[in-house]
Amino acid sequence: MATEQYYGTGRRKAAIARVFLKPGEGKIVVNGKEFQQYFRGILRAVHALQAFRETGTQGRFDAYITVSGGGPTGQADAIKLGLSRALLKVNPDYRAQLKPRGLLTRDPREVESKKYGLKKARRAPQFSKR
Questions:
Q1: Nearest-CA neighbor of 67 among 27, 20, 112?
Q2: Cα 26 vs. chain centroid, distance in angstroms?
Q3: CA nearest neighbour of 45 among 54, 53, 36, 32
Q4: Which ranges are annotated Basic residues under compositional bias (predicted)?
Q5: Tens of pLDDT, residues 44-82
Q6: Rounded CA gap, 29 and 84, in Å?
Q7: Which pLDDT score is estimated for 1?
Q8: Where are the extended beta strands (E) located within 1-130?
Q9: What own/partner pairs with CB < 8 Å and gap ≥ 24 does 97-101 have?
Q10: Which residues share a beta bridge with 72?
Q11: Which of 7, 13, 40, 91 is deepest in the core (most CB within 10 A)?
């Protein structure tokens, strides 16, 4: 007897999150750690679980998440998108709650590459008159 499982991929900046949802009691594991332990003290990480609140599915699914690359903010936003996409596979009717809040939109902003002769992507060296 195979248990049903739903999958969603989320990306943001350099972070990639793979989200697996299984019916359960609401346990969320990120890279083998409890969600609160992984995002210790980062308020923005709470927004990663916004999709559960919007669809009213908090506590109905166990989430097993592997996330790599980027920093805490990018990883939290990647989880948010992956979770939303996985919930769509659970029930396509959730689209009406997720889409207006921008939870199904991939944020396309990436870091611009550094140019030669400049200090950063656009920051020129400081001008010295003498």
A1: 20
A2: 18
A3: 36
A4: 116-130
A5: 788 899 999 999 998 999 999 999 999 999 999 999 999
A6: 16
A7: 52
A8: 6-12, 15-23, 28-30, 33-34, 61-68
A9: 97/54, 97/55, 98/51, 98/54, 98/55, 101/50, 101/54
A10: none
A11: 13
Total residues found in the chain within this entry: 130
Three-state DSSP class for residue 16: strand
Q: In what order do the strands lie in the sheet with 61-68?
A: 6-12, 15-23, 61-68, 28-30, 33-34
Angle at 33 between CA 32 and CA 37, to 5 degrees: 165
Which residue type, as a one-letter code, is found at position 128? S
Write down all domains in the chain, each with its CATH number in brackets.
Answer: 6-101 (3.30.230.10)
Three-class secondary structure of residue 32 per DSSP: coil
Both tokens of 13, joined, read 């900046």
Q: How would you write the pLDDT of the chain (130 residues) with one tens digit per residue?
A: 567 899 999 999 999 999 999 999 989 999 999 999 998 877 878 889 999 999 999 899 999 999 999 999 999 999 999 999 999 999 999 999 999 999 999 999 999 999 999 999 999 999 999 8
